[in-house]
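TODO from last week: model NADPH-dependent FMN reductase.
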Amino acid sequence: MNITVLSGSPKGKDSVTLQSVNYISKLFPEHSYDVFHIGQTIKALMEEEDAFDAVMASVKTADLIIWATPVYTCLVPAQYKRFMEKLFASGKAPLFKGKYSAVISTSINFFDNYAVDYLRAINDDLDTLFAGSYSADSYDLLKEEGQMRLAHFAAQLFDDVQSGAMFGKRTYPLSYSWHVYESGPAPKPVDAGTKKVLLIQDENYEGTNLGRMVERCVAGFKADIEVVTLSDLAVKGDCLGCIQCGFDHECIYEGKDDFIEFAREKVAPADILILAGEIKDRWLSSTWKQFFDRSFFQNHVPALKDKQVGFLLSGPPHPDGGPQRDPGCHHRMAGGTPCRHRHR
């Protein structure tokens, strides 16, 4: 059986998740495993068509596709998210149709279900036959129980593929609308007093539904509020999962790009944060994912504690609440339900 492994970790062959795949390959050596380090080579995959085409060629001949990824900030890493966007934009998505697929994820069993649900939905959109998922703790392979559980998962997965088992979709297809958003009568502007309001968008949406929502939101405050566009920042790269920040709260990108200064000088002092973005393949953009992943340089410190956070979202609604459910789950926000203005 030909198995294509799409690894989302930026750590390449040193990925903890990939060790689960390696363990499976030793238990079932009769199968062929074609491993692509998507997270580590994302720059080449985005810029070099030959690199991307090599992945698609493997997918075309695969009997099974394994999505192997760690969980970064409640979802897949930004690098993996960028690959998803490239995949759907490239027109190569039909290559996945009818292929068996499965997910192997690694985390501390915190929001791994959210990452798996996202990948399950992506596979439904790709028309694959989703055969199951396996969520592991980082140290499971060091325990006999963890080894047995993974072996049983792999045996059942391979048996399902080889016997031609049928699997249905669980996720409703995305429903897009061509409706043009127009604001209603302007309410009385809100006086935020001494509170500092910061609106962050991943790109400039002028002339779009979201752009009009942003304009209306800004005009809804009595005083001027600051608007920052993430794509205007000079950000050198995505989170690498090196955990250097776990030692001293300092990122390896310290002093090398704009992100750390932006987080400290703009985000940290804000009392009210408004996050604006469009839904792309069932989540916010990879630029937003980069924002959440890179924000983890503060590690598990509740960096957004007591801040009010709202959302402006444009795009197809997600049945389970989508990104606004908890996009930055390692931060703790003010109590209550965050407001959100959403348009399809």
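Done. The first helix runs from residue 16 to 27.
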